[in-house]
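Q: Hi! First time doing this. I have a protein sequence and I read that you can turn it into a structure. Is that right? Here it is:
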Amino acid sequence: MQKPQKGSIKELLRQLDATAMVVPLLVVVGLCVLFILLPEGSTRVVDGVRGFLGNQLSSFYILVGVGSLIVSLVIAFSKYGAIRLGGEGEKPAYSNFQWGAMIFTGTMAADILYYSFCEWALYAQESRIAQLGGMQDWASTYPLFHWGPVPWSFYMVLSACFGFMIHVRKRTKQKFSEGCRALLGDKVDGPAGKLIDLFAIFALLAGTATTFSLATPLLSAVLGDIFGIESSVGLTVFLLVLVAAVYTADVIIGYHAIMKMSVICSWLFFALLGYFLLGGGQAQYIIETGITAIGNLTQNFIGMVTWADPLRQSGDGFSGFVQNWTVFYWAYWMAWCVATPFFVGVISKGRTVKNTIIGGYIAGLASTFTSFIVFGNYGLGLEMHGRLDISGAIAAGQDIPSVILSIFHTLPLPVVALALLFVTMVLFYATTFDSLTMVVAAYSYRKLADVEEPHHAVRIFWAFIFIIFPIGLINAQSSLASLQSVSIVAAFPIGIILILLVASFLKDARSYLAELGAPADEKTPPAPPQKGAG
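A: Yes, that's right. Below is the predicted 3D structure, encoded as structure tokens:
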């Protein structure tokens, strides 16, 4: 990967897509003003739209999730799976461990860590959990479902699409719209393409804003607990700026720095896992409950992934468990689909489509499941053994960061554990937003070859944009439900675009194999010629 080319500001401006940068900036600033000045009215509007999409059209999110999982596996094990993302003899740029670490830490690692501590408790007292058999077996199973194969399939199937587009077709327009070219043709160069790209950027901003707004208050609470200072909105905003400064400094260096940071984050994550397993005194319970949860998920997966609760028996008759939780998580991951699959596609150069998809599943699911099993089951064990009423505290309205702090205070030397959590989450955030900033900066160019990195000024611009909307949401004191609404609304058009992208990839990949003279039933296509050969 080459460093960004140096040139004048005028030359840089000519290379950029002004619409993709200015319009999102204006919309983000406008939304921040509305959320800060009219918090109640803004929340009602967003929640109203969420109510229609999440409840009336919940089947759409469910079907997109099921379809994405099935199609990703079909692609991996079909003739398309043998396509190499690069030229003949292309070797992967990163080792399997480095590549897997970048996939985990460059996606939603900070969110995964945050939800690992509390998700089981968020719906432990839901009627759905009681209907299935109770908290012990099912409060530990649903987190694995909501962060398992279906959401990861959104990333994996699109990683193959974008990796093929960038490394095989050598497209220099690194945008969502360009991924639809084989299907939509020249329409992607007109208003239709602009609309697709704007939807994509808005969804990404909504997803990142939800992430920062939900989990950053935990950093504020941890810092306050360690140093004995009051956790406040001001401290939370300061930490947002701190995280932004860290990932901005890192992203200026480029992909090599992202890889190094990912490896460091992974070792810190392992250290925190070890602290809970060895220091918490519940290793046997954690492991056995984790095995049970994986067994429940495996045995009941088809029923869980297709259950739509048409009578809303698991809720209030209008909004059920699926609509409140499953639809939110599918939408949340869809919103992040805009940048993360581009990042995975870029770092997968030299790997086959099959290796990218299956290897990505292994890296993502192994780290995600480990996090939820160790951290989540530790808290569940505290409740089941009568040491803490975690789910009761959350149901009574206690804020989640303070509940997570109470879990840490059951460990030996809790200050050490909290300090490790703080550093790990800050670096997780930095690594995740490193990858997103690199991708969306490339998104801002009219053309950018796969061997070039975006200009430093463009990366800094997006690092700044990513931080504005979360500050607006935090100052508006948005609730969990309202933050969920932002992602659900933003993800709806992305679900439609995802279908177009996959259909376009299948058409383009089939044409590619035909160009190489591969028979229709041949599963191993000949490698494309190297540049300059012959």
